[in-house]
Amino acid sequence: MVYRSNRGAALNWRKSSASTDDSTCVEVAALGPSVLVRDSRDHSAGVVTFGRAQWNAFLSAIREGDLDRR
């Protein structure tokens, strides 16, 4: 789900400490049982919302390399 609103303005958005100022990165925030993800450079682009199970499956796919470009 993508939301194009400013509702996340008061959330505690976090970005990886491995990110640098010139790299493309996303930020994440918790909102109740959901995890929100947004572009760190373009906050107006919208927010993708994951349920906890979806978020855990997404992280697992990243760790396993299932989303790597081949």
TrEMBL record:
Q: What is the official name of this protein in its record? A: DUF397 domain-containing protein
This protein's superkingdom? Answer: Bacteria
Q: Which InterPro entries match?
A: DUF397
Residues annotated as domain DUF397: 11-63
What's a Pfam family this protein contains?
DUF397
